[in-house]
Batch of 2 targets.
Target 1
Amino acid sequence: MKHLLYSFLLGLGLSTSLPAAEQNENQNSELAATLENEFKQSYPETLKANGTVKSFELTAKESEWALFPPYKTRVWSYDDSVPAAVMHIKLGETVKLKLDNQLPQDTTIHWHGIRVPNAMDGVPGVTQPAIKSGESFVYEFTPKDAGTFWFHPHVNASEQVERGLHGVLVVEDPGEPEYSQDVVWVLDDWRLEKDAQIYPQFVTRHDLAHDGRWGNLMTVNGEYQPRLKVRAGERIRLRLVNVANGRVFLPSFAELSPLVIAVDGMLTKAAFLLERFYLAPGNRIDLDITIPKNAAGQRFAVKDIFSREERTLAFLQVTSDEAVKTPAFEPPKAAHFPEWKDALKAPVSHDFVLDAKRGGAHGIAWTIDGEAWPQEESFKLKAGQFTRLRISNRSPRLHPMHLHGQFFKRIAVDGKPVEENYWRDTVLIGPRESVDIALVPLDKGAWAHHCHILEHAEAGMMGIIEVK
Ligand code: C2O
Ligand code: CU
């Protein structure tokens, strides 16, 4: 009734003033509608399975792996491989994966970044019971997005992921251009003792008081400084995945000037030059790299320059063969990406405060809003609604915060707008920094959100966001 009256007065061209609160509310809902409209078609709410089922079987078990030959390191693996052999499917296909647990403890698989039905998300006690030692479980889902995704246990992850349980799932979009080579690089680090065995104390006080467990050996695809053979003129799609427990990588390709075409699985609004991109635990980037025509016989070192002490991760070894013709196509990009110019006009619906306190099973508890996992209450979000959230880090440590089941966009750091033209599922929050993110949740269910420094998560830094 009130609204009718006001619109009637407005219709007459009479000036009118709504009570301030109501005016705000109207503006907010108008703004929300605009932002939600801009979001539409960014990625699908549902995707029809095309009927092709890709069946996989994985056994999680103890095995040996030569991380640093000639030593053999005792690891935990999927099918005796660290990382697991890369799984490829095409968009529209259904994954059916039977996991056999031959580990000495419970496990699950979480599909990091993949919008799966909530019951397939692998969070014990929330989306499924943990899979007991000696038992098995079948995961079945049809990914709705193409891209680079990964999977890992969500039970005692600080130990299980560290010991070698992780793998990559590439969902291919047949509509995307074909590169000379399509390569996955899994970046990891290990804390090894003298005989190249895994240091068996996990979630130590030191790890907890710092940025988790940082190792002394960095590997790419479970190998120390491997070489990727390429030919001059080739155009490579290189998919980088950070599976480390705590280490942040800052990958540097020197003079190769790669383009970033995807972040956390999803194509960017437009390709951009790789500069300083902090690849935090959980993050992925897809790079588009052209090997110069005159580079035959050359070797390019790929380095991590996060720390003062640069370290070589791997090499691109160009063969001495004659240069090949470089495939010519525009780098793939997102079909639609929202402008969200006014996202920072929307109200912050919640400020998640990250901090630590004394106590808990490990002596130090990492908290969200003062509480260590399990939280008394989950945070509720409405499906389809534009939402702006803030995450405020009150601690002097790093926290790569990961949200299951949703993509979001970083829109501000310490209140100042940032322009990131891509989606994320994990965002690194610096010491005492606050980050604003925006999202339109589509996938319903109880989704975990947590720090991807697995020691921090193990010591409590996890909560549930319920999308209804
Ligand atoms: Cu890779 Cu719950 O995370
Ligand atoms: Cu953390």
Note: The pocket of CU-O-CU linkage (ligand 1) is lined by residues 110, 112, 152, 154, 282, 402, 404, 448, 450, 452 (CB under 6 Å).
Target 2
Amino acid sequence: MAEKITMGPDGVLSVPDEPIIPFIEGDGTGVDIWPAARMVLDAAAAKHGRTIAWKEVLAGEKAFRETGNWLPEETVEAFKDHLIGIKGPLTTPVGGGIRSLNVALRQLLDLYVCLRPVRWFAGVPSPVRHPELVDMVIFRENTEDVYAGYEVEAGTPEAERLARYLREEMGWPIRDGSGIGIKPVSEFGSKRLIRAAITYALDHGRRSVTLVHKGNIQKYTEGAFRSWGYELVSEEFADRAVSWDDCGGDPGDRLLVKDAIADNALQQVLTRPADFDVIATTNLNGDYLSDALAAQVGGIGIAPGANINYVTGHGVFEATHGTAPRYAGQDKVNPGSVLLSGVLMFEHLGWVDAAADIVKALEETIAAKIVTYDFARLMEGATEVKCSEFASAIVDRL
Ligand code: NAP
């Protein structure tokens, strides 16, 4: 019988064998990649005696066409009520109203972690010589920083008022004609993000968590993020984790928590990728780092992502690329990003066997050089297949 996923009193998700999972097909190429990914997810779940009762909910262009609303209340309610959902890419409405549907969902459900695992799949064309050394999981803070949206435009009365206040009250010589943005970074927001990263690292047998920050310049925001991280290690994880300064880089059997300044981190993930494992970082750093790392393993078109609130249990798993509208309906693009987001969702639900099966079948398909156009154009001797054919090839190997 189809049932809802619920949050147990112990803070652990309770997942029935036939969970109801809301999905948003997505705009543009969503019509191609979602059915392809769903076919693979269903086949892998069935192999382990499980079924997913998919529940379509609307957002984006399809919602606007059918209801006149870009993000209907029922959709938000469905995600609230069922805890876990998955979505394809959505068109960002241009003009007034909602800034971005993705941002709206994140804010409405307070999804404070943006989770982006980055690893290489054998055979995927990569710009670096040793992409296999990249196996990182990025925890990007999702609700604060310059992304909070507190900005005023140069020349507006609001900007003038704020500039006047800053000049008169703070003594800051803000130039005339400046746009001004506010960067809030709180102890609460930082600690809950870093707590999620450390807990994940411990649960998944990872070696280290690196706090990536720009604290040498932005002391009271980025620098505080780092300090709060180390404080959290001694407050809550002293028996299982240790900071670099307290162990000289030798954590024994505990998890090592260290930090790196963002610009240095961006070069070291390229030159010494094996030194990085789980990464916890502020919002803007995380944005740069996630895409730079995905590109490093050639995976920008197949990178998965999720937005999670580990306290309430809410999670929205999503393709990280956009709608690629010029390919919409052509059964052409790579379904890998939304499929691997589904794999991430399976892992999150504790369906690790089905998740591992999909990863293995995907690896075998790519290793056989059966790929969609985006990989085919970079691989020698590849067989280019359609989006749906790629999914079928994965199912054949499950
Ligand atoms: P995009 O849709 O990601 O497309 C950019 C390029 O990325 C495509 O032209 C294609 O490159 C490649 N690509 C994207 N998806 C692919 C896939 N599944 N397989 C293979 N290649 C893929 O970015 P955009 O054109 O800037 O944005 C289009 C719309 O998507 C906008 O409305 C934007 O706001 C929205 N968007 C949504 C999300 C989201 O919902 N999470 C994220 C980003 C953007 P080639 O043409 O070189 O093959």
Note: Residues 29, 33, 89-92, 102, 301, 318, 321-325, 333-334, 337, 374 surround NAP (CB under 6 Å).
